[in-house]
Amino acid sequence: MQDKEYMAVMIQSLEKKRDILDLIIEKNREQKILFSEEDSDPDRLEENMHEKSRLVDQLNQLDEGFQQVYDRIKPALQKDKESYKEEVGIMKQLIAEITEKSTTIQAQEHRNRELAVKRFALVKGNIRQARTSNKVASQYYQNMSRVNVGDSHFMDSKK
């Protein structure tokens, strides 16, 4: 493969990374909605998280491939920077976009983590309240069943 082709592969890799980051941003928006809604479907949340995990795996593969190609072409880039000026400019622009999207994702992740903590605390509180209510109801029914046993000796004795 020629050096220009390696550069094209690296540019293509950065474009794919940018597109995947856009998908992750969208998944984070969906996740925010899921954490914000009280009656959201836990299965949708799990599916969302699974999809984000798959996208992150793709990013890692792209990063590894990019690094391998860069390691091959690095000597030629250092030797003849002028020949690759246009490609390097495109890559710098893509890297700037990727950095901006990564910052957006970090902010979204931080907000979603806070929403998740609040959401899980609410669910935990609801579970605790439900357990307490069940315990109180159970004790009430047990107590009421004992009270009925003692009532049978009050009979009408006027016969």
In short:
The chain has helices spanning 3-36, 42-79, 85-150. It has 159 residues and is mainly α.
Distance between the termini: 114 Å
Average pLDDT reading: 85
**Helix/strand order:** HHH
Largest sheet: none
The secondary-structure class comes to: mainly alpha
Give the % helix.
Answer: over 70%
Strand content: under 5%
Unreliable residue stretches: none
Shape: rod-shaped
The rounded Rg comes to 31 Å
Number of helices: 3
Count of β-strands: 0
What would you note in describing this structure?
The protein has helices spanning 3-36, 42-79, 85-150. With 159 residues, the chain is mainly α. Helix 1 runs antiparallel to helix 2 and helix 1 (3-36) runs parallel beside helix 3 (85-150).
Descriptive tags:
159 residues, mainly alpha, 3 helices, single chain
Topology:
Layout: H1 3-36, H2 42-79, H3 85-150
